[in-house]
Amino acid sequence: MVINTNSSAQNAASLLQQSSMNLSKSLARLSSGSKITSPADDSAGLAVSMKLGAQIGRVGAAQNNVNNAVSFNQTQDGYLQKVNDALTRMSELSVSAQDVTKTTSDRQLYQSEFSALGSYVNDVATKSFNGVSLFGGTALNVTTDSEGATFSNTGVNLGSNTYTTATGDNISTLSGAKAALTNTESAISQLATDRANIGANEESLGYYNDQLSSLSNNLSAAKSQITDVDVATESTNYAKQNILVQSGTAMLAQANSMPQSVLRLLQ
Predict the structure, then answer these.
(1) What is the C-alpha separation between 95 and 91, in angstroms, rounded?
(2) Are both 24 and 135 inside the same structural domain?
(3) Which of 6, 128, 255, 266 has the fewest CB atoms nearer than 10 Å to its CB?
(4) pLDDT, tens digit, 9 for 90 and up, residues 50-84
(5) Residues 13, 60: one domain?
(6) Which domain range does residue 239 map to?
(7) What is the pTM of this model?
């Protein structure tokens, strides 16, 4: 039996230190909700989770872009619904102006309304959405994923000849009314095509939005598997480490008292 070197106490102290460190880690995980509280806990997992987190952020940004594009298309269609009403009325006026029982002054009254409706259509052609022209005819490339892939959002051009010819007609004469009817019919046909394209844009963007939402959920689940702590399991581990610390403290006290038994040999 020796006094200078107490191997039992040293071993107990080493084990107690290890248990205390494990207890601190468990406490940090439970309080933070994360399994990785420092790079040393899981360096590879930390690297993967950082990449997943960045991708989740980009997916969210792409989803915002898609939603904004949907709003853009919905705004376009809202205007075009009223343009359809205007062109429909203009075609009716073109037919009414061809009534042989109408006088020139009657046709002039029709022309006044026709002209006002044409001005409305021309005004709609200048509208914008957050500074971006709604009806400039340019296709917009909408970002649809985290890597920058795009969808070509078909444009609508209310300034095309098909529309401007119709809105610029004059139905104050019989021949002018006949020409206006032909032109407004062409404009209505073009409008139907444009609204169909907008509908196709919205449908496609809706699919992209659902895809991005699903991807975001899956990426979040994958990141959670790496970083999120299992509270039930970690609580059990915390209780275990807490008991080990308490028992280690008690055993260290016992180990430190062992050399005192040497005094009995000297009595």
Answers:
(1) 6
(2) no
(3) 266
(4) 999 999 999 999 999 999 999 999 999 999 999 99
(5) no
(6) 7-33+230-266
(7) 0.79
